[in-house]
Write a structure and sequence with these properties.
352 residues, alpha+beta, six-stranded antiparallel beta sheet, 29% helix
């Protein structure tokens, strides 16, 4: 573990700092144990600050502006203001609580491509530095496994799992980012949905499930939110319940799209009326102005016909109305521990 700025300021023969973690995977809301090992150098030195940080590689921005950077989402102060004597060996054990909303790094033994880690923050001789993160493996809680397993049985496939630096409006999200799991829909939903985005926000009492469906061909987004508790998981028909969530989401999406279509039809109708009024005015001008006015009439008719053609295309809304008959089958405080700072979400008016 290299602290170039700190050790550089202390000169050659400075202290050595290392960290070891228990290699057992952890679940959201669990704990990670380990120790920081300090080895004194050729002379005594004063350590001003020693802490641990949980860091995640998070995507910021959308579309062509996306980039990834490390975000600190929790911190545990271990000490500071002490002297490490020459050749002294000092081991500092620690237990760090993992926030309930900590993202998953693997499911069923398969890595999701999410990068999490624990790193040491050290200050000495007026310089602050960070060590390289030690990887952290996070597996799902039983309630998360229940939902993910149901999606798998329904035929959904994993596309990607990203961390988004944003807050989902209307949820109890506490961290400044959330995990978005993108899924390819099962065959029975393919004609309605192009992709499903899933976010699982766990807490001490249960979990918020946030679903978003992207209607193929564009249109308004629709969100589905559901709350489940940690208890009684084995008594629920998870495949049937998740299927009802998906079908309700599809119906909501269809309703939003139809509403947008009706709004577009109204705008097109107003434009068409305006075009017809323009034709009447141009016709009057033709009687007074001769050949020049005649050319303007032809142009005005062309605009009006274009508007009428657009209105005719809106007859396809009947297909969307048919979707309204779809029916499905059926119906966070962090753990204790001393911290310098906690995660706080940035405002975002929901997903779009």
């Amino acid at each position: 573990m290299v602290f170039k700025r700190v050790l550089g300021s202390l000169g050659v023969g400075g202290p050595v700092v290392a960290m070891t973690l228990d290699r057992e995977p952890v679940r959201p809301g669990g704990v990670v144990r380990g120790q920081v090992r300090l080895r004194g150098g050729g002379s005594a030195c004063d350590l001003e600050h020693l802490a641990l940080e949980l860091v995640a590689g998070v995507e910021a921005g959308y579309g062509g502006e996306e980039h990834e950077g490390d975000v600190v989402f929790d911190r545990l102060r271990l000490g500071g203001g002490f002297r490490l004597d020459a050749r002294e060996h000092r081991d500092i054990p620690f237990t760090i609580h993992i926030p309930w909303e900590t993202p998953l790094t693997e499911v069923s033994g398969q890595p999701l491509g999410v990068v999490l880690g624990v790193r040491v923050e050290l200050a000495a001789a007026g310089a602050m530095d960070h060590g390289d993160p030690e990887p952290l493996i996070v597996r799902p809680l039983p309630v998360q496994e229940a939902v993910l397993g149901a999606l798998g049985r329904l035929g959904f496939s994993l596309v990607a799992a990203d961390l988004r630096l944003a807050h989902i409006a209307g949820t109890g999200q506490r961290l400044p980012f959330h995990q978005e799991i993108e899924l390819t829909p099962a065959p029975q939903y393919l004609h309605n949905v192009n992709e499903i985005a899933l976010t699982l926000l766990t807490g001490p009492d249960g979990m918020e499930v946030v679903l978003e469906a992207d209607k193929r061909g564009g249109g308004s987004g629709a969100l589905g939110r559901h709350t489940v508790r940690h208890e009684g998981l084995e008594q629920r028909d998870w495949a049937g319940e998740v299927d009802s969530w998906i079908r309700a989401l599809i119906e909501s999406r269809a309703t939003h799209t139809a509403r947008d279509g009706r709004a577009g039809a109204a705008i097109a109708g107003i434009a068409g009326i305006a075009g017809i009024a323009g034709i009447a005015g141009v016709t009057a001008g033709t009687a007074a102005g001769g050949a020049v006015g005649s050319g303007m009439v032809a142009a005005g008719l062309g605009d009006a016909l274009g508007n009428l053609a657009g209105l005719a295309d809106l007859e396809g809304l009947d297909d969307l109305r048919d979707l309204e008959g779809l029916e499905g089958p059926g119906g966070l405080e962090r753990p204790g521990g001393r911290r310098d700072s906690g995660g706080s979400g940035s405002a975002e008016e929901g997903r779009s």
